[in-house]
Amino acid sequence: MKKSASKSALVASLAALSVTAGPHSARAAEPATCQTVRLAEPGWNDLAFTTGIGMTLLKQLGYDAQSSLLGIDVIYLSMKNNDLDVFLGYWDPAMITYAKPYLEEGSVETVTVNLQGAKYTFAVPSYVYEAGVRDFADLQKFADRFESKLYGIEPGSNQLMLDALDDPALGLNGWKVVESSEQGMLAEVQRHERGKDFIVFQGWAPHPMNARFDMKYLSGGDKFYGPNFGAATVSTQVRKGYKQECPNVTKLLENLKFDVEFENKGMGYLMDDGLEPEAAAVKAITEEPARLENWLAGVATFDGKPGLEAVRQGLGL
Predict the structure, then answer these.
(1) Cα 170 to Cα 181: distance, rounded to the nearest angstrom
(2) CA angle 158, 162, 163 (to 5 degrees)
(3) Tens digit of each residue's pLDDT (9 = 90 or more) over 108-123
(4) Which of 274, 309, 303 is nearest to 289 (CA)?
(5) Beta-strand runs (E) in 57-107
(6) Which domains does the chain have, with CATH numbers?
(7) Where is the signal peptide (predicted)?
(8) Burial of 33 (0-12, 13-18, 19+ CB in 10 A)
(9) Residue pair 196/127 in contact by the 8 Å Cβ criterion
């Protein structure tokens, strides 16, 4: 009887220890160093929006999420140097020039594809297309009308345009890439469109530009952007070792997937409504709260509580 009681007491003690250890086990699997999550994006509205989604969810889960605005080349170097943790915007194949060395050496790792159905290549207004500019090879025929200029985005993000200029087959010797920003480039497209002037620029989808402008994508860029007008996927990447160090954040990143329609709408909140990325994210989540179930499946708060419940409560859903 005394022995039985002792055994019962031991079982009870172990059960109690198991219950109290639950949250602490989650914390032990993900150390305090994981509470700060360092993200970056290059100033593109699609990536500003998706990064805003990630930031919003992480903050509601109890993490200190921070985002930096950096050129693509700096983003990769920063992940290699352990100065950044997460990048939600690897466009494949458009960014392969930047990413390949880091992926090959293992300093950057891909978590998952977060968007399919994207595209990324040269574009022109439809009136330019109808005038005979339908392929990369057509550009040099109209050099004077284009003023021998290609309009790109941020410095450090236009390598594929620069590669096209260096290709003797395209005859673009003497042309230059005008680098500014996404907004600067789009302002130039709008200005040229008003006067029906020729312009060739960096186009992509998802992006509201596809609805805002009557535009066409050029063929002939497979060598630089890949086939089917630069058909692309977008992936989430992390620095080396992050998946093992921070499994709960990694689970969220594995779940965090989007679609073109959702991103087009969210980017509109940034560009048309003037919302900041996290405000746009909250609006998008509030309008489609069912997405949270997939995004937060198996994800906990930083202190080990159910993630879905915490985010719903925090956002008032």
Answers:
(1) 25
(2) 115
(3) 999 999 999 898 999 9
(4) 309
(5) 64-69, 86-92
(6) 30-116+232-315 (3.40.190.10), 119-230 (3.40.190.100)
(7) 1-28
(8) exposed
(9) yes
